[in-house]
User: What shape does this take?
Amino acid sequence: MNRLPARPTPYARRAADRGATAVFMAIIAPLLIVLAGVVVDGGHLILERRRAQAVADSAALGSTLYIDEDAFATSWDRGGLQQLKLKDDAGRQRANDLVGLYRQGDSFRAVTLSSLTIDTNGLKATAVTQAYVPFYFMPIIDLFGSTVTARAQSQLVYGIDRAGQ
Assistant: This one.
């Protein structure tokens, strides 16, 4: 008479797999922590990059709002086409004020106006801002922060051109 081999009991099968969950978690947990760090810190980096871009845009635009009235009046008196020139000092002061307003509520934001170039005759201003972004999760893998840079340019346009714009 042929006897079938005895089937292992459910408890015997569980005993053979004992500890498999611990090994699985030991492998997966660090990967999940690093993934969470990339998501959180990457999102924070993108957010601060957008904020730095907004500050650069404001600084560039704000620095082109101050026209040198003396140069404008002098060109008007000559009867020719009025010449617009930007005020360099007032434009720089306005750009720095706008950066200061951005930093006012949040002490951890280190946004700085790293350069501001005002072309007084070309009626252009270029602002470059930088912000240091600290990481929250990534110090686990020895990354503590990053610096983001944003650049914006503004040009003052006056009059109506031949295209009617």
Remarks:
- Helices lie at 10-16, 20-63, 69-77, 88-103.
- The first strand starts at residue 110 and ends at 119.
- Residues 11-155 form one domain.
- The chain is about 45% helix and 20% strand.
